[in-house]
Every structure is written in structure tokens, then in C-alpha cells.
Amino acid sequence: MTIKPAFLQGDNDDRNSDEIGTGIATQVRKKVKKPSLYRVLLLNDDFTPMEFVIVVLQRFFSKTSDEATQIMLHVHNNGVGQCGVYSYEIAETKVSQVMDFAQKNQHPLQCVMEKQ
Ligand code: TYC
Description:
By secondary structure, this protein is an alpha+beta fold. Helix content is about 35%, strand content about 20%. Strands 2-1-3 form a three-stranded antiparallel β-sheet. About 20% of the residues are buried. L-tyrosinamide binds near residues 45 and 75.
């Protein structure tokens, strides 16, 4: 039987090779880590118009008019609500886009992310 060293094994080979005759257990299983997920949240305030929040949810989170209205009302009534769940980079981009858009329109809307 031929034993291939770990570095010659195929890219898609994720088996464990316990022993290769050296007495050293060699771990060849690839570590495939799932990306951590982050919630993107909108916070309520007393000044941002409801219609503006609905536009944000449609433009940046691809919500329908009905979904956006529901989420906006949830935030209005509860103080905070979820726009979506994303990988770190996407969540960060969404937060930046919303904060830029709110600032350009002179609304105090706050958008944050938190690890799920
Ligand atoms: N409370 C705001 C108002 O009465 C509406 C609002 C909803 C603001 C959601 C921010 O994230 C928000 N105009």
C-alpha cells in the first residue's frame, strides 16, 4: 500500500490519516469553518420619518413594501428590530450604507450589527 504524504493529497480529500508509519498522527482534515453570522438591526428614534425607514428596508435589505412596513412598525413599537442576518463583511457594508444614507438625508436613524 502506498501512503501519500499529506502535502500530496488532493485538495478535496478531507479524510483523516491517523498514522503514516512515523508514529506521528497527522491531521489532514481541512478545517472548514462556517462564517459567523451577524444580525443587522435598526433602532427607533423620534425623528426619522416612517416612510424613510421603509425606503431603507426596501433599498438595502430587499424587503417588499409590506415587509418593510411591518419591520418599521416593529422597530417603532419595540425600539429595535432585525433587518437581516449576514456574514461579518456584508453586515458591515449594510450598516455603512444605511448610516451614510441617513446622514446624507439628515435623519438620526441608527443601524447596528451584533453577533448572532
Ligand atoms: N419613531 C419614528 C417616528 O415616529 C419612526 C421610526 C421607525 C424611526 C423605525 C426609526 O428605526 C426606526 N417617525
